[in-house]
Amino acid sequence: MPKAYWVVRVSVREPNRYPEYLAAAKPAFEKFGANFIVRGGPFEATEGTSRDRNVVVEFKDLATAKACYQSPEYQAAKAIRQQISEADFIIIEGA
After folding, report:
1. By C-alpha distance, which of 34, 37, 19, 31 is closest to 73?
2. Is the pTM of this model over 0.90?
3. What is the structure's pLDDT at 74?
């Protein structure tokens, strides 16, 4: 069964509150075995548009990736993230 990923591009409007989102999301990440492949860091946008922050999170499969996103734990964190940032967020199955 292929792994699945959250691919998220984020522009943070309130960087001082971003740790609040991460702390709120941590229980969901732990519960669903999230593995951060990319978590911010320097990047070069070679084509198209970009955002300030890029994140890739690996899950054991698509069902788990979706369950994490839909969980009450992550939905509470998402509410914080949406207050302090704008994001492009996809859940995708790996090869």
Report:
1. 31
2. yes
3. 98
